[in-house]
Design goal:
This protein is mostly helical and about 130 residues long. The chain starts with a helix and ends in a 5-residue tail after the last helix.
C-alpha cells in the first residue's frame, strides 16, 4: 500500500465518522444553543482527551489496544473538521444574536457572578442535557 493509499483510507474513515456524528448529533453548538467557539473547541478537546486516555491505558496500564487509539484519533479528526465546517456559521449566529439582544443564555450566567470556568461548566451541563453535538 502506498503512502497516498494509506492517507486516502484514513481520510475515508474520518469522513465516515463525521457523517455518523452529524447524523446522530445534527445540532452543532452555536451561540443560540448555549455554546460558542469555546464550546465547539471544548468538544474537540474532549475527543483529544479520549485519545490520551486510550494511549495511557494501552501504554502505561496494558489495557486496550492500538485500534482503540485509532478510533479516538479518527473521532478527534472528525470533530476538528466539524469545527472548521461550522466556524463561520457559529460566528454569524453569535453576531446576529448579539445584534438582536437575544443572548439571555449568556446573560443569566453573567448575572450570577460566577467564574468563567463555572460558566463554561454550566454551559456544558446544559448543552449535554439537550442540545447534542
Amino acid at each position: 500500500m502506498t503512502h497516498s493509499d494509506e492517507v486516502h483510507l484514513i481520510i475515508q474513515d474520518i469522513l465516515a465518522e463525521l457523517a455518523r456524528a452529524e447524523h446522530f448529533h445534527p445540532v452543532w453548538p452555536a451561540f443560540s444553543h448555549r455554546g460558542d467557539h469555546v464550546w465547539a473547541a471544548s468538544i474537540l478537546a474532549e475527543e483529544a482527551g479520549e485519545v490520551l486516555k486510550a494511549a495511557l491505558n494501552y501504554q502505561a496500564h496494558g489495557k486496550g489496544n492500538i485500534e482503540r487509539i485509532r478510533e479516538e484519533l479518527v473521532q478527534t479528526a472528525a470533530m476538528a473538521i466539524r469545527n472548521l465546517k461550522n466556524l463561520d456559521r457559529v460566528e454569524r449566529t453569535r453576531i446576529e444574536e448579539i445584534e438582536h439582544g437575544d443572548i439571555a443564555n449568556w446573560h443569566y450566567l453573567k448575572m450570577e457572578r460566577i467564574s468563567y470556568p463555572q460558566k463554561a461548566e454550566r454551559l456544558i451541563e446544559d448543552y449535554a442535557d439537550g442540545a447534542g453535538v
